[in-house]
Amino acid sequence: MKIIHIERNSLAEELGLQVGDDVIAINGREVKDEIDFQFWAAEDQVLLQIRRQDEVLEFEIEGGFDGPFGAEFEPMKCKWCGNKCVFCFVDQNPKGLRSSLYFKDEDFRLSFLYGNYVTLTNVSPKDLRRIVTQRLSPLYVSVHAVDTEVRKRLLGIRGNDKLLDKIKFLTDNGIEIHAQIVLCPGWNDGPYLDQTVDELSTFYPMVRTVAIVPVGVTKHRRNLPELRPIDGEYAKKIIEWDTKKSKHFLQQKGSYFIYLADEFYLQAGQPFPPAERYEDFAQIENGVGLTRDFLDTFEAEKDEFPQSLPDVKLTIVTGTLAAPVLQKNVLPTLRAIEGLQVDLQIIRNKFYGGNVGVSGLLVGQDIAEQLQSRPLGDLVAIPPNCLNDDGIFLDDWTIGRLEKLLQRPVLRPEFGFAEILDKLYEFELK
Predict the structure, then answer these.
(1) d(Cα 134, Cα 126) in Å, to the nearest integer?
(2) What is the rounded average pLDDT of the residues 85-98?
(3) pLDDT over 80 (residue 426)
(4) What dotted CATH number matches 305-429?
């Protein structure tokens, strides 16, 4: 835990800590990362041990920390995934991307902090005890299958990793889990899918939800096991199965328990369930209920839309899967606004291949190539989930680069279509 920055007028500065100091222990307990630091520093009396070059210094803090400590630590080193999952998306990335897109993390700390999914294959008994002691809940766990042989084939592991024993230990000790199953046709569906959700349901309510998401298959699979992407007919069968299975869980446990990713409904061309079906939308970051939330938000905000705008034209960018949703539910309302022209541009994902149609995997170069020769409006709105928190597409393009090539302002809306219309209204003020 090396300190890389000290804030002015902070407790860390008052103690005399310096950049380059290593935090090694609190009250005699080893500190490996910021989670350790925050947890052990919450005690009433804190004895902080610091290594400065070859010297160990101790600082007593009466009454614990009152407010932020004021020290920034170097980023923690994440645990690498040792699995060889047949469906791993990292293995399906093309060459030449930024290095972080090839890093396979398998770190329960990232699961707790950011909702990353982990398989728990590499957690030790010591890790499990730490999770319980520090109450690192909820965790997000990739299960995929509970049958030992199927699990070994899917995850590329040699032995029984005793996942259910780990889940039992965690849930018995108060750790809540949200699980996911990446559904691979012919691998973990059929009776294996029933077995997996039935076993997980025995841990309800501590295993709170199970998301079922379709396998992603890109054109960059090389020397990897053959996988079949889902299609419309397959998606319809899974929806039919889910309808019966989830009703059973609702009657038995008072919760639907299992939740399908939006892609199943998009592939099947079937309407999305109402918001009540997603209960508290616990897995929305996993693409479960995202479209329903979007539609309900749009419905709620459209009464506040202006009746007219200056003569402006809006270009909306979307992927192939979401296009019908926008065409049916969004465009008629927007086109009813006087003075507003709306053009929907459906971008085909050439970067990853024709089997990938979700808007969240659109890349800058595909948008640029397919829009460059088309008449564009005053503003181009792109799906917000196709960029990371730093505003970078998967292919390392930025909005600025896209704007320069298209010679149009490009907006990544954070707050829905009201934000887009507000931006268009600014053109009238100018």
Answers:
(1) 12
(2) 89
(3) no
(4) 3.40.50
In the structure, what pLDDT confidence band is assigned to residue 58 with cuts at 50, 70 and 90?
very high
Burial of 374 per CB tally in 10 Å (0-12, 13-18, 19+): exposed
Contacts of 384 (CB under 8 A, 6+ apart): 412, 413, 414
Instruction: Return d(Cα 373, Cα 391) in angstroms, integer.
Output: 24
pTM of the predicted protein model: 0.90
Domain ranges of the chain: 3-73, 90-287, 305-429
Residue 251: CB atoms within 10 Å: 8
- How many C-beta neighbours within 10 Å does residue 7 have? 13
What pLDDT is attached to residue 25? 96
Measured between alpha carbons, how far is 416 from 419 in angstroms, rounded to an integer?
Answer: 6
Q: What does the pLDDT average to over 362-385?
A: 93
How many residues are present in the chain? 430
Q: C-alpha distances in angstroms, 321 versus 193, 324, 335, 398?
A: 25, 7, 21, 23
Residue 419 or residue 212, greater confidence: 212
Task: Output the CATH code of domain 90-287.
Answer: 3.80.30.10
| Strand order from edge to edge, sheet including 258-260 | 139-142, 177-183, 207-214, 258-260
What's the confidence (pLDDT) of residue 210? Answer: 98
Give the pair of three-digit tokens for residue 415: 């707050």
Q: Which residue has the tokens 């541009």?
A: 345
Give phi and psi for 262, each to the nearest 5: -55, -30
Which positions ≥6 away from 210 have C-beta within 8 Å?
Answer: 143, 178, 179, 180, 181, 197, 200, 257, 258, 259
* C-alpha to C-alpha distance for 56 and 54, rounded to whole angstroms: 7
Do the Cβ atoms of 320 and 344 come closer than 8 Å? no
How many other β-carbons are positioned within 10 Å of the β-carbon of residue 228?
13
Chain centroid offset of residue 348 CA: 22
Q: Are the C-beta atoms of 174 and 223 separated by less than 8 Å?
A: no
The encoded tokens of residue 114 equal 């950011």
Average confidence (pLDDT) over 156-180 = 97
Note the CATH number of domain 3-73.
2.30.42.10
Contacts of 342 (CB under 8 A, 6+ apart): 313, 314, 316, 331, 334, 335
Long-range contacts of 348-355 (CB under 8 A, 24+ apart): 348/320, 349/319, 349/320, 351/94, 351/394, 351/395, 352/92, 352/218, 352/219, 352/220, 353/217, 353/218, 353/219, 353/220, 354/219, 355/216, 355/217, 355/218, 355/219, 355/229
The DSSP-derived string for 69-115 is: --EEEPPPPPPBP----TT-SGGGSPTTS-GGGG--B--HHHHHHH-
